[in-house]
Amino acid sequence: MQDDSRTDLVGLLTGPNQSVSEDTIANFLSSRYKRNQVYTRAGHSNLIVINPYQPLEAVNDATLQTYADVGYRDVSENKPMLQPHVYDLAARAYFHMRRTGEDQSIVLR
Known about the structure:
By secondary structure, this protein is mostly helical. It has 4 helices and 2 strands, in the order ααββαα.
């Protein structure tokens, strides 16, 4: 049985005793979707979004501020671990751009 507290698909696939299959991935994403967790990390720079075709409570100015504060304003080593979110991906891209001076792109498919 998979650990439902995981937020990163890569961790699921590389965990001990994990059988990697399409069903494992689909079940993992489905269980997160059923808990209204439509965002799932797939490594450091990828985000899987399952569109619920409904407004999301977590898409608001307060959530944006939280992810901005943690994502690129908080430089401490003990940052709180937030759930995957499109705001987290944007903050990571912005922080990387500011740190390296390299242009960044976010591709939606």
